[in-house]
Amino acid sequence: MVLFHFRIDHRGSEARLPRPADYRKLGIFIPCSANNEHVANYRAWQELRVDYLWLKNGHDYPADLRALIASNGLRLG
Predict the structure, then answer these.
(1) For the chain, is the Cβ count within 10 Å smaller at the N or the C terminus?
(2) pLDDT class for 58, splitting at 50, 70, 90?
(3) Is the pLDDT at 13 greater than 90, yes or no?
(4) What is the pTM of this model?
(5) How far, in Å, CA of 32 to CA of 4, rounded?
(6) Residue ranges per structural domain of the chain
(7) How far apart are CA 63 and CA 23, in angstroms?
């Protein structure tokens, strides 16, 4: 597990060894935070990223996931 503090800038590092052309680095990243200005700043930064294709083309969460989140007293940022 890797923990990030949203008020500290961070990024991934370049590979130390040559990788095959078809190599893909995948990860699951689930940020959790108090709903405050840091979340708004992070979300605004994500919106500027042209390589964050999952946020483009009208991305939205499925209704059942939204219902599950709301039923547990949580909100999506």
Answers:
(1) N
(2) confident
(3) no
(4) 0.50
(5) 10
(6) 53-77
(7) 34
Neighbours of 77 (CB within 10 A): 14
CB 8 within 8 A of CB 33: no
Single-letter residue type at 23:
Y
Q: Give the confidence band of 71 by pLDDT, cuts at 50, 70, 90.
A: very high
* CB crowding 30-56: b at 16 or more within 10 Å, else e: eeeeeeeeebeebeeeeeeeeeeeeee
Please spell the DSSP secondary structure of 33-65, one letter per residue: --SSHHHHHHHHHHHH-TT-GGGSSS----HHH
Rounded CA gap, 73 and 75, in Å?
7
